[in-house]
Protein backbone atom coordinates (compact mmCIF):
# COMPACT_ATOMS: atom_id res chain seq x y z
CA UNK A 1 0.00 0.00 0.00
CA UNK A 2 1.44 3.38 -1.00
CA UNK A 3 1.67 6.30 1.43
CA UNK A 4 -1.08 8.17 -0.42
CA UNK A 5 -3.44 5.18 -0.26
CA UNK A 6 -2.70 4.68 3.45
CA UNK A 7 -3.29 8.39 4.08
CA UNK A 8 -6.60 8.28 2.24
CA UNK A 9 -7.63 5.16 4.13
CA UNK A 10 -6.96 6.58 7.60
CA UNK A 11 -7.63 10.29 6.94
CA UNK A 12 -11.14 10.36 8.47
CA UNK A 13 -10.04 8.39 11.51
CA UNK A 14 -7.06 10.69 12.04
CA UNK A 15 -9.28 13.77 11.71
CA UNK A 16 -11.73 12.34 14.25
CA UNK A 17 -8.96 11.57 16.72
CA UNK A 18 -7.30 14.98 16.30
CA UNK A 19 -10.59 16.81 16.80
CA UNK A 20 -11.43 14.60 19.79
CA UNK A 21 -8.13 15.56 21.39
CA UNK A 22 -8.67 19.24 20.48
CA UNK A 23 -12.20 19.17 21.99
CA UNK A 24 -10.92 17.64 25.22
CA UNK A 25 -8.19 20.30 25.50
CA UNK A 26 -10.76 23.00 24.65
CA UNK A 27 -13.15 21.76 27.35
CA UNK A 28 -10.32 21.54 29.85
CA UNK A 29 -9.29 25.10 28.99
CA UNK A 30 -12.86 26.34 29.36
CA UNK A 31 -12.91 25.02 32.91
CA UNK A 32 -10.49 27.82 33.83
CA UNK A 33 -12.98 30.54 32.86
CA UNK A 34 -14.32 31.89 36.16
CA UNK A 35 -17.99 31.16 36.80
CA UNK A 36 -20.09 34.29 36.91
CA UNK A 37 -21.49 35.26 40.31
CA UNK A 38 -23.59 38.08 38.88
CA UNK A 39 -25.53 36.21 36.18
CA UNK A 40 -26.87 32.71 35.95
CA UNK A 41 -25.03 32.20 32.66
CA UNK A 42 -21.60 33.76 32.39
CA UNK A 43 -18.68 33.78 30.00
CA UNK A 44 -17.99 30.10 30.69
CA UNK A 45 -21.37 28.96 29.29
CA UNK A 46 -20.84 29.14 25.51
CA UNK A 47 -17.28 27.71 25.44
CA UNK A 48 -18.56 24.68 27.35
CA UNK A 49 -21.45 24.25 24.92
CA UNK A 50 -19.10 24.57 21.93
CA UNK A 51 -16.62 22.14 23.46
CA UNK A 52 -19.29 19.57 24.24
CA UNK A 53 -20.77 19.74 20.74
CA UNK A 54 -17.29 19.56 19.20
CA UNK A 55 -16.45 16.51 21.32
CA UNK A 56 -19.70 14.75 20.37
CA UNK A 57 -19.14 15.42 16.66
CA UNK A 58 -15.52 14.29 16.88
CA UNK A 59 -16.54 11.07 18.60
CA UNK A 60 -19.17 10.45 15.91
CA UNK A 61 -16.51 11.06 13.23
CA UNK A 62 -14.11 8.67 14.95
CA UNK A 63 -16.68 5.89 15.42
CA UNK A 64 -18.01 6.26 11.86
CA UNK A 65 -14.45 6.01 10.53
CA UNK A 66 -13.75 2.91 12.59
CA UNK A 67 -16.91 1.23 11.27
CA UNK A 68 -15.96 2.15 7.68
CA UNK A 69 -12.45 0.76 8.20
CA UNK A 70 -13.84 -2.52 9.52
CA UNK A 71 -16.17 -2.78 6.51
CA UNK A 72 -13.37 -1.85 4.12
CA UNK A 73 -15.32 1.09 2.64
CA UNK A 74 -12.72 3.84 2.80
CA UNK A 75 -10.36 5.51 0.37
CA UNK A 76 -12.31 4.50 -2.72
CA UNK A 77 -13.41 7.95 -3.92
CA UNK A 78 -11.52 11.06 -4.93
CA UNK A 79 -13.86 13.68 -3.45
CA UNK A 80 -11.62 14.23 -0.43
CA UNK A 81 -9.61 17.07 -1.97
CA UNK A 82 -12.65 19.34 -2.25
CA UNK A 83 -13.79 18.37 1.24
CA UNK A 84 -10.34 19.06 2.66
CA UNK A 85 -10.23 22.45 0.96
CA UNK A 86 -13.68 23.36 2.32
CA UNK A 87 -12.72 22.28 5.84
CA UNK A 88 -9.56 24.39 5.68
CA UNK A 89 -11.47 27.39 4.32
CA UNK A 90 -14.13 26.97 7.03
CA UNK A 91 -11.42 26.93 9.68
CA UNK A 92 -9.93 30.12 8.21
CA UNK A 93 -13.39 31.74 8.15
CA UNK A 94 -13.92 30.86 11.82
CA UNK A 95 -10.53 32.32 12.75
CA UNK A 96 -11.30 35.50 10.78
CA UNK A 97 -14.71 35.68 12.49
CA UNK A 98 -13.19 35.40 15.95
CA UNK A 99 -10.40 37.83 15.09
CA UNK A 100 -12.70 40.46 13.61
CA UNK A 101 -15.37 40.42 16.31
CA UNK A 102 -13.56 42.85 18.62
CA UNK A 103 -12.90 45.25 15.74
CA UNK A 104 -16.25 45.28 13.92
CA UNK A 105 -18.58 43.83 16.54
CA UNK A 106 -20.67 40.69 16.90
CA UNK A 107 -23.46 41.57 14.47
CA UNK A 108 -21.36 42.63 11.47
CA UNK A 109 -18.78 39.86 12.02
CA UNK A 110 -21.59 37.30 12.23
CA UNK A 111 -23.27 38.60 9.06
CA UNK A 112 -19.99 38.37 7.15
CA UNK A 113 -19.20 34.92 8.54
CA UNK A 114 -22.63 33.43 7.75
CA UNK A 115 -22.66 34.99 4.27
CA UNK A 116 -19.24 33.64 3.25
CA UNK A 117 -19.89 30.27 4.91
CA UNK A 118 -23.09 29.90 2.87
CA UNK A 119 -21.15 30.64 -0.33
CA UNK A 120 -18.51 28.09 0.65
CA UNK A 121 -21.06 25.39 1.44
CA UNK A 122 -22.98 25.83 -1.82
CA UNK A 123 -22.09 22.93 -4.12
CA UNK A 124 -20.20 23.89 -7.28
CA UNK A 125 -23.05 22.63 -9.49
CA UNK A 126 -25.67 24.85 -7.75
CA UNK A 127 -26.36 28.49 -8.57
CA UNK A 128 -25.26 30.80 -5.77
CA UNK A 129 -28.13 32.92 -4.40
CA UNK A 130 -26.37 35.87 -2.84
CA UNK A 131 -29.54 37.75 -1.87
CA UNK A 132 -30.84 34.72 0.02
CA UNK A 133 -27.47 34.25 1.71
CA UNK A 134 -27.30 37.90 2.77
CA UNK A 135 -30.91 37.96 4.01
CA UNK A 136 -30.36 34.76 5.98
CA UNK A 137 -27.07 36.02 7.41
CA UNK A 138 -28.65 39.28 8.59
CA UNK A 139 -31.68 37.51 10.07
CA UNK A 140 -29.65 34.82 11.81
CA UNK A 141 -27.17 37.35 13.20
CA UNK A 142 -29.90 39.61 14.58
CA UNK A 143 -31.71 36.61 16.06
CA UNK A 144 -28.51 35.37 17.72
CA UNK A 145 -27.82 38.86 19.07
CA UNK A 146 -31.34 39.04 20.51
CA UNK A 147 -31.00 35.64 22.20
CA UNK A 148 -27.57 36.38 23.68
CA UNK A 149 -28.34 39.97 24.68
CA UNK A 150 -32.01 39.90 25.72
CA UNK A 151 -32.60 36.31 26.83
CA UNK A 152 -29.24 35.13 28.16
CA UNK A 153 -28.10 38.63 29.22
CA UNK A 154 -24.62 38.15 27.80
CA UNK A 155 -22.55 41.10 26.67
CA UNK A 156 -21.35 40.80 23.11
CA UNK A 157 -18.54 42.75 21.43
CA UNK A 158 -19.78 46.02 19.94
CA UNK A 159 -16.58 46.54 18.00
CA UNK A 160 -13.85 49.12 18.32
CA UNK A 161 -15.02 50.85 15.15
CA UNK A 162 -18.51 51.38 16.56
CA UNK A 163 -17.69 52.39 20.10
Task: Write up this protein.
- The chain has five helices and no strands.
- The protein is mainly α and 163 residues long.
- It folds into two domains: 1-76; 77-163, no CATH class.
- The N and C termini lie far apart (59 Å).
- The model has no long low-confidence stretch (mean pLDDT 82).
Task: Provide keyphrases for this structure.
single chain, 163 residues, mainly alpha, 2 domains, 5 helices, globular
Summarize the structure.
This protein is mostly helical. It has helices at residues 3-30, 45-71, 80-104, 106-121, 130-151.
Q: Based on helices, strands and strand pairing, what is the structural class?
A: mainly alpha
**Coarse shape:** globular
Give the helix proportion (percent range).
over 70%
Q: What's the structural domain tally? A: 2
Q: What is the radius of gyration computed over CA atoms, rounded to a whole number of angstroms?
A: 19 Å
Helix and strand run: HHHHH
Number of helices: 5
Q: What do the pLDDT scores average to?
A: 82
Q: What composes the largest sheet? A: none
Terminal-residue CA separation:
59 Å
The percent range for strand residues is under 5%
Number of strands: 0
- Spans of at least 5 consecutive residues whose pLDDT stays below 50 are none
Topology:
Layout (H helix, E strand, L loop, with lengths): L2 H28 L14 H27 L8 H25 L1 H16 L8 H22 L12
Helix pairs in contact: 1-2, 3-4, 4-5
Amino acid sequence: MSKETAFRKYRDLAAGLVFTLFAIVYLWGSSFIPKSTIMRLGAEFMPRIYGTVMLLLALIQTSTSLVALKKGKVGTTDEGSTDSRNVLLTLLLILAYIGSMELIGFIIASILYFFFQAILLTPSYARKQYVVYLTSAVGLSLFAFYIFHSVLYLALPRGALFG
